[in-house]
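Protein modeling request. Please complete all fields; requests missing the sequence field cannot be processed.
Requester role: graduate student
Desired output: 3D structure, C-alpha cell encoding
Chains: 1
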Amino acid sequence: MSEAQNTVALPPYPEIEKADALYGVSRWGGGFIRILENGHIGLVHPDRPDAVPTDLMHIIDSLNERGITAPVLLRVADFISYRIDQINALFSSAIEEQGYKNRYQGVFPVKVNQQAQVIDRIVAYGRSHDFGLEVGSKAELLIALAQDLGPRAALICNGVKDAEFVRLALMSQRLGFNVFLVLESPREVELVLREADALGVRPQLGIRIKLTHEVSGNWAASSGDRSTFGMSIAQVMDVIDALRARNYLDCLKLQHSHLGSQVPNIIEIRMAAQEACRFFVEISREGAPLEFLDLGGGLGVDYTGEHRAAENSTNYTLSEYCLNIVETVRYAMDEAEMPHPVIITESGRSCVAQSSMLLFNVLEATRYDSPEPVWAHPDDHMILKNMLNIESYLSAERVHECWNDLVFYRNEMRALLKSGQVSLRETAKAERAHLYLMNRIKSLLAGVEGGNDEMELAVQQAADIYHGNFSLFQSLPDVWAIDQLHPIAPLHRLREKPTRRAVISDITCDSDGKIDRFVLGDGVSKTLPVHELEATCDYYLGVFFIGAYQETLGDLHNLFGDTNVVTVELQDDGRFELMHEQEGDTVAEVLTYVEYEPRRLVDGFKAIVERAVHEGAIAPRDRREMIDAFKDSINGYTYFEH
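Delivered output (642 residues):
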C-alpha cells in the first residue's frame, strides 16, 4: 500500500544548519539520511536526489495509526538495491579503467543478516549482477537452496561441514546451482571426496587460505596466523597433494581468504589482497586450474563520517576500494603472466548496514540537575548553608572551585546522615541544592570555551538519562559487546536548540543496557544533545545503519523479544509503500524460547486465582478480570505499550 504525506514548503532556517553541524547528519548520512526543513529526519534515495525525501516522523505516525508501535525496526528496500547496484557498477568501472580481462561477482554472506525479507531482496536485486550467497552452516545452506539464484551466481559454502552438509551441496549441483565447497581444513578433504565418489559428482572445490597479514579494527583476530578459519601454508600443500593423489586437483577452482570485517585502512586491504594473489599464483603453478579469487569480507562502513582509519570509520570510499582491489589483482597476475581470475568479494556489511534503523520513543528522563532554587533557612546545618552559599561566588573564573566545593559539601552531608547527625529531610534538601547548583554550573560552562577535562567529566557525570523503549541486548548487541558506534539522532524537533545532554538507557534491568558514546559532528561524545521531554507527545530517537549483524545477534535479556519490523520502499513524491510487516514477538512467543508452555502458565495462574476465590481473598466476579489481564499480557508486545 502507498502512504501519502503532507509536505509543507518552509523557508531555509539557520537552525537546520546548526543541527546538521551538531549531529553530523550530512557527514555520516552517506546520501541516505538528511535533516528536512521542518526539522525532521528524512530518507533520501541517492539515485534520485530530486525526489521528495520521506519524513521518518510521517512513517512513525502512519505506523501508529495501523497499530504498529515503537520500537520498530525500519528497513528501506531502496537502500539495499542501491548499494548492490553501486558495488557492481564501481567494480565494472574499475575493471574497465584498469583493462582487467575478467569480471566481478559479489556474494552476500547470509550470516550478516539471515532475515528472510533481507535475503529475498538481496537475491532479487542482485540477480541481474550474478550476485550470489555465502553460507557457513547447514541452516544457511538450506536458506540459499530455496532461493532462485541466477545460473552464474556463486554459492560459496564455508564453515565446518558434516557429511549431510556436503552431500546436500553436491546434490544441488545437479539442480544447476553454481556451488563451491570451500575446504577449511585438511580433515574436510576426505569427507568431501568420499561423498563426491558416492554421488558420482565432480565437485567445484575451493580452498581457504589463512593469510599472514593482520589487519586492524574490531575484527583483527579474524586475520593473521591466529585466525580461526583457513589453512596454513603447510596445510595448503598437504591438501594439494591429497587432491592430486585422488585425481581431484582439476576440481580446485576457487581460492578463498578473509581479510576481516570492517577493515578501516585501505593499505591493509591492498596488502592482504597482494598476499592472496601470491597464493593464487603459486597454487596455480602446482597444477590447480584456479578461476575464482574470493577475497572475502573487509569492505567497511563509515559509521562516524570521519573518513579516517578508525574502528568505526574508513579512510577510503567504495570507489577507492573497488579500484584498489582490481588494480592489485591485475598487477599481480600480469607480473606472473597468468590469466585474470573472476574477482569475488563478500561485502555483506556494506550491502545492508545502511538499510535498517531502529526507531524508538523515550519513556522518561532521570535528571541530575534542577532549575528549582533552594533557599537557606536559619535552622539549616552549617554544611548545608555553606553549600547554598556557593551561588554567591559562582562565576566563570571560579567555576572549578565551585564544583570542588559542591562535591565536598554534598559528601559531608551524606556522611552526617550515615552517622545520624542530620535528618533525612535535611539531607534531601542538600540533594536538591546540589541539583540546583549543578544546573547553574552546567549553564555557566555552556558559554565557556575550552573547559578542562575534569570539568568536562563533571558535566558528563551530571548528564540526564533518557530511558528508551528498546533493549540494547536484543537490537544493538554490538554496541554492548564491542563498543560499536552507530549514528543516533532525534527524529524531530531539530529546528529547536537541544538544551539537555543525555546518555540513553534501555528498559532492561541491567546497568550495561545503556549507550554512552555518540557520533556528533565534531567527533565522538560521551553524551547526546537532546530536547526537553514534553508531556503531550512522544520524543523519538533513531539509531541508524544497523542492518549488518544487529538483527541476528540479539539475545533475550529480560525476555525482550524481536521488535516490530517493517520494510518500506520510497516514492519520488515523498510517499512510501509498506512492502512487508512483521509483528514483534509476543510474551508467549518469547517464553517458548526459554522452555515455558504459555498454556500451562495460564492454567497455573487460573489455579492460583481459583484458590484465592475459594479462600475468600477475592470475589468470584474478580476472577475473570484477573485472568483476562494475565492473558492480555501473555499475548502482548514485550516492549512498553501505551
